[in-house]
Structures are given as structure tokens and as C-alpha cells.
Specification:
single chain; three-stranded antiparallel beta sheet; four-stranded antiparallel beta sheet; about 100 residues; mainly beta
Length: about 100
């Protein structure tokens, strides 16, 4: 298993939501989640590369950067039929749902 992770989160103080990917920086998914939580985000969905569908987001290459924000918008993300959409960017956190 690779350590490619995707997290959807909302920052209540600023009312901003994000889809963020990390590829190679965090050894474990919980570490990526904990990092975002430490910055004030509330985690909405998490997944490793085997769990989530790519949707209309291409994956990032291996990087030593902390993470890449793939989508952001004001407010909370739209969630319909297990699919998350932020500013036109869509994916399923659990491709089996």
C-alpha cells in the first residue's frame, strides 16, 4: 500500500472547505488528519489510495511537500450520494459506497 491520502475538511472559524492530497509526506493517514486538525480543520472524509475514487481529480506526484490543496471554497462541501463536491471538483471518499 502506498501512502497517498486524500482528506476533505472544513475550517469552521474561516468557513473554508478543502480537498487535500498528500503523496509520500505523511507515513500514516492519521498523521495527515492530525496535522489538519491541529490547524483548526474538522475532518469530514479520509481515505487512502485504495479506498477513494479519483473522481475528476488527477493524483499528484510523489512530493516532499506536506500536502496539496486540490479544491477549496467557502462553506461546507456538497455531499450527495456519497460523492463530495467542492467548487466543481468531485470524488467519492469510499468507491464501494
Amino acid at each position: 500500500m502506498t501512502n497517498y491520502f486524500r482528506i476533505t475538511a472544513h475550517h469552521p472559524e474561516t468557513d473554508v472547505c478543502i480537498i487535500a492530497d498528500s503523496n509520500g509526506y505523511f507515513p500514516k493517514l492519521w498523521e495527515f488528519s492530525a496535522f489538519l486538525i491541529s490547524k483548526g480543520f474538522k475532518v469530514i472524509a479520509v481515505g487512502n489510495s485504495e479506498k477513494f475514487s479519483d473522481g475528476n481529480i488527477s493524483r499528484i506526484g510523489t512530493t516532499d511537500e506536506t500536502f496539496a490543496i486540490r479544491a477549496c471554497n467557502m462553506g461546507k462541501p456538497e455531499i450527495v450520494n456519497s460523492e463530495i463536491t467542492i467548487n466543481g471538483i468531485t470524488y467519492k471518499p469510499d468507491k464501494t459506497a
